[in-house]
Amino acid sequence: MQTARLALDPHFTVGRINRNIFGGFVEHLGRHVYDGIHEPGHATADDEGFRGDVIDLVRELGVSTIRYPGGNFVSGFRWEDSVGPREQRPRRLDLAWHSTETNQVGMHEFASWLGKVGSDLMLAVNLGTRGTSEALELLEYSNLPKGTALAEARMANGRPDPFGVKIWCLGNEMDGWWQLGHRSADDYGKLASRTAKAMRQLDPSIELVVCGSSSAHMPTFGEWERVVLSHTYDDVDYISCHAYYEEKNGDLASFLASAVDMDHFIESVVATADHVKAVRGSSKTINISFDEWNVWYLSRFEDVEKIQGLDNWPVAPRLLEDHYSVADAVVVGNLLISLLRHADRVTSASLAQLVNVIAPIMTEPGGPAWRQTTFFPFALTSALARGVVLELKLDAGTYGTSQYGVVPVVDAVATHDDATGATAVFLVNRSQTEEVTVTIDVAALDDLDRVDAQSLYDTDVYAKNTLEEPERVTMKPNTSATLERGVVTITLPAVSWTAVSLA
Ligand code: AHR
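Above: the input record for the complex with alpha-L-arabinofuranose. Below: its predicted structure, written as tokens.
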């Protein structure tokens, strides 16, 4: 049996948790919108055609902002197609996913759905096939209270008050060769700067996200961030990071350590942003919007799912419908630990995505909706992480991986809410064979007398929740947890994610 130790002290903090770190992402892709959140014929559908069972699950998940409408989709999207009378909305090709977009759910319907799930809108503008002028028009349509043709059009379309969208993404993954309108860092940086300045001229209160790299493994990574920020440093608030992880070639040991890569990614982008800050002698700090992150079996999409053919543009095809295992959920929980650990600089993040498409929630047309394994770490972390992230001293064993070298067996992060005293510790055991008993010194935290712990694990690390067996995997109480004389002791099962809450 391995052991690990950690100590918490409320006087030493990393930073305050921005709730926007618990964001989600809805892209017009596959069965995400149509047959996912929107299925008019479904038994639980409301008067707008939104599935009630999905609304309940999204609420339970605890998602703050939701990025919309893409993703790769946005780089060919004409926002005007998605507003106005539904019967007049055009069907369009979605080149990103080789599908047909019917535009039956657009800005207004999506904003109404957000009201039902209790989340805020984060909008991406198309800087792929379009530019500054269309971004300005969308901002005017969305945020201007009244008095112009576009504001009046919004009102005529049934929305008297502005949408009041606060966070805007300046395009999507513009470094990627697959992106419509993909361009060099220099060209994109100039376009993003022009567009940001124009958008702020219209509404100075908005926050802007400039595209960073679509992965830390892009050949342009690092230099892309430096060049783009050299053009846009004064104009934007965040630079984006995107990262997806999958188990490759049966290398579970490396996959379980994916958060090591995310840590390195975040720290590299912070270093690059701060380098640009230093060169400019700026007092402003650029933070990170980690607005796409998850486990994604991308190789399956590339090898099996890709749609092709000039006469083959399906509506809402089954795409990117990964079914997640216990191991995947442990990695997702660990990625959340990484995001929280960097709460001083990661102030916005979006789990990609939300329903059916690489999602924590799955649906069957005419059938049930259910929680994937990855639902649990997100929902619990969102519910329990409050206040500030504490600096953590962790003493744990290590193991070797082929991708990331020697890594700790245990990873953890702790949060503390001064107002209520509520404290949470999130832990991962990456060992495939051994339990780890962890002692957590909480003596510096006053008045703690109750510990509650839940773990996600299974004898089969590849167990999943499916249509046939939707509750095969759930959180289990971890009854090993004790709190005595200022020390919590808990045993973490092999390949597990655990949430400990102290009150
Ligand atoms: O989330 C799926 C896709 O991944 C998004 O559309 C794109 O931005 C990224 O490459």
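Notes for the reader.
The chain has a mean pLDDT of 97.
Residues 2-9+390-502 form a domain with the Immunoglobulin-like fold (CATH 2.60.40.1180).
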